[in-house]
Fold:
Amino acid sequence: MVEQRGLWLEEFTPGTRYLHRPGRTVTEADEVVFTTLTMNTQPLHLDAHWAAAQDGFGGRRLVNSMWTLSTVVGLSVAQLTLGTIVANLGFTEVSFPHPLHHGDTLYAETLCRDARPSASRPGQGVVELEHLGRNQDGTVVCRARRATLVRMRPDPRGEGR
Structure:
């Protein structure tokens, strides 16, 4: 029997790059629902006529950057943290170097930067990850560093660590 799960702390190796597939093509519905749910009424996301009159983005609406970040992290879950994460500890160095538009396909990859046992939480450890989101052309559209608290591999005898 095989159960899908994320990685235990001991399975993370610094320097390993994980490619998360399949990607996710952005639809207009994704944008409208996410943007209105989060109360981000920026016309660059919702108003095609207004966006067409603006310089710098080809007259096209932009995908909400928080949707982009959330989806990049979400694409990593099944492969890295499904059922093994305890908590997100924080994000740093978040950037969006290139716009994402409706119809673009978002692909994610993650570099493990560090993995170490927690000094204060027995049976758990801190994993530092760098997430990248790329569009269908390979252009980086999102970059973020994230620290997570993950579980160590359970003791098969049921004893504490």
In short: The mean pLDDT is 94.
